[in-house]
Task: structure prediction
Amino acid sequence: MVTPEEIARITVFAALSERDLGRLSQVAADIMLVPGEYAAYEGGERALFGLLEGRIEAVKRVDGADKVVGERKPGDIFGEVPVTLGSVFPAGFRAAEASRVIRIEPHDFHAVADIAPDVGREVGRLASHRIAGSRGLQGIVAEPWAPRAIVVGPRWDAACAALRHFLDRNQVSFRWIQPDMPDAAEHWDGPLPAVEDCPVLRVVDGKTVVKPQLRRVAELLGLSTEPLAAEYDVVVVGAGPAGLAAAVYGASEGLRTIVVEREAPGGQAGTSSRIENYLGFPSGVSGEELASRALQQARRLGAEILVTRTITRIDAGTRQVHLDGGDVLRARTIILACGVVWRQLRMDGFERLVGKGISYGAVRTEAPATHGLDVHIIGAGNSAGQAAMFFSNHARSVTILCRGDGVEKSMSRYLVDQIAARPNIQVLRRTEIAAAHGGASLEAIDVRSSETGETTRLESGGLFILIGADAETGWLPPEIALNDHGYVLTGPEAASAEGWPGDRDPFLLETTVPGIFACGDVRASPVKRVAAAVGEGSMAIAFVHQYLKQAEASPVG
Ligand SMILES: Cc1cc2nc3c(=O)[nH]c(=O)nc-3n(C[C@H](O)[C@H](O)[C@H](O)COP(=O)(O)OP(=O)(O)OC[C@H]3O[C@@H](n4cnc5c(N)ncnc54)[C@H](O)[C@@H]3O)c2cc1C
Result:
């Protein structure tokens, strides 16, 4: 337990009376930290800390990497900003060497500040200095922006759009230079690459690559693409909310866990501009923020997460998992969390303009290209509603094209209300897309009214198609039973499907192959929601434990 004398070594408390120091010593937690251990995480609950021994560094997550932004020495405090503002920690605090700190809960701090107003004033002054001082938060903001990569490519180049989207989804900051920008060569710092070589990527302080494959981009940026081991307790297919939840629970419960993701972590949720109905985020949370937090959590707990790798085949008998490129992993259990893919619109002229103004899903990197333009959204579900709200902050107008009588039946009430309140969003009911036109990029669309049969041409600066999604499960082995729409059967439905070989009932999320589980959107279930995916991903790990326990008890069964 910390003594009053030790507390008096913290500068802000030095002038407290013996009685007040005694009170604080009763309530302060005495914490020993090993090097690298965090006293408080970025985004963590507020509290005031004092450093007794060692050295603490303030660490802020910038572009997916930790950046040391400050330091505390014995006698210093940290946590003054959150306790003063009643906010969460704007940066994390980690032991740079073995350290000893005290932690004072906010109500205990305020009780001391009531009795000794000078302490409150000093903590407030330090907080203000941390925010406004040249080495504080204001200093961090004032630092010149240093992206991790530079991309050169024309606006309407589909490969360049895919590369930018990939970097964005993997939370890699980048500067995009369009060759026709007046200051392009200046930003590139040399003669621009030829247009036929684009897109070109330069990793800042690293290599430059021409028309790179996304795997190569991931490798150059230090994202994991190669498995570290040959055998895992759990191999998770897909890093959407379900897969990331399985990773967090699997790794935290001591299972050797790897997640293989063909694109970028976050899945569909990563493309959602604002999820308003996820528990614990009263003002909503962007899918990107949710995915980035989940990713950090999974990695911190020890899960391996590979990106740009696709699982192409599963051998149900041996439970071997084949990755593109030929790697084979042995898995004691497998969790299918591979979600769904956007339904494509088959129409003349469409394919040619995808990536050139037409996008599947609400591609957020396209937002700047819609400034001042009229854009169109096809779909009437929640994802279409969210996309409309998102683009209405960028485009001059957003028109939702909806085949039915309106969006009220298919969209959540809160979105219907938000859309109705936005003056630059309109809904065209009983309207279908008939054609898309454009040369280098999308210029106009034809829409047909099912009421009048009339076709109208509308100028369009962007067309976003959100007409639902399908399970893409054709690559799964035939032993895994699917329903008529390709979704994976689990639990009671797997038990009654042909092929369940076990002498027990399958676990709730178990497929027709013992030890292979499915969760989230790919599972046959009417609920397609982030909360359901997260819940099922976590539950799947509980069933993995039960399965492994039984398998160990009767190795052949
Ligand atoms: C624009 C939009 C807005 C939404 N808004 C909301 C909302 O407000 N509230 C809400 O609750 N829900 C919302 N949803 C739905 C929610 O995002 C999904 O229910 C949820 O993401 C499903 O999670 P999942 O992990 O099962 O699948 P997904 O999110 O689909 O993730 C699956 C992942 O698996 C990867 N993958 C697939 N096959 C393979 C393979 N063979 N190898 C490797 N990787 C593979 C994919 O690349 C993908 O990253 C929204 C969806 C969208 C698209």
User: Anything to note?
Assistant: The chain has 16 helices and 29 strands.
